[in-house]
Amino acid sequence: MTYLVLAFLWLLHWLPLPLQAAVGNALGWLLYWLVVPRRRVVLTNLRLCFPQMSEAGRARLARRHFMCVARSVLERGIIWFASAERIRRLVRVEGVDKVHALLAEGTPVILLVPHFCALDTGGTRIATELNTASIYSAQKNKILERWLFHGRTRFGDQALFSRQEGVRPAVKKLREGGRAFYYLPDMDFGPRDSIFVPFFGVQTATVPGLPRIAKLARAVVVTYTVRMLPWGRGYEVVIGPVWEDFPSGDEAADTLRMNQEIERQVLKMPEQYYWVHKRFKTRPPGEPGVY
In total, how many domains does the chain have? Predict the structure, then answer.
């Protein structure tokens, strides 16, 4: 079955992106109605994060989110099979010159990448410009894992480590120089190594890895957001300015600052944040589950 999906993605990647986007939007609309358990997860997340929004408004946002998720899956064929030239043409990047300059002067750079639907597209695109290090979560489907690994390492000199290896190999690569860290911290990895800080007003289990890695690697942090443009007009990557006074030495405050920065980016394109993830699965002691 996995090979049939791969073959389908390979065939689909030859189509113009607007046609792929139309197929993805239709599929996402269908999945919203069919995949009831995941729809409930999305609506629960939206209710917690946007309590002021009407129920009808959250339902509309959830439908748009499913369309973005479906698009991100179908358009994965582009980042797995298309040429570097086509990927550069489809994915515009703003601010990469500042990262080149920082690396050239010997300053390690952490790219803080919130979990937007097109994050893998952003990872493949930046690999055509920079050498990076990153951490991935092992997949149960090993064929899929192999292709995810392929998509993230097919260009340049990319160092990819499993979450089971921890962050030290990535930090070591950063300190060697000439490499940025593509870091995706905003998922619920359970209570181990997590602290509870607010995310959209909800106490959220968050790994305080960003300040720790920045300190260990003596690295600066910039925000890296990937926007999926409507109707297949391509993608847009924006690399923000260097964070000032980070890390501050207060791990909880620094982790809260990270969540607040992610919130700001989510509000710019709420339909594209990865709401299908059970972000609030781990609760503080004594609090009931939300899912």
Answer: 1
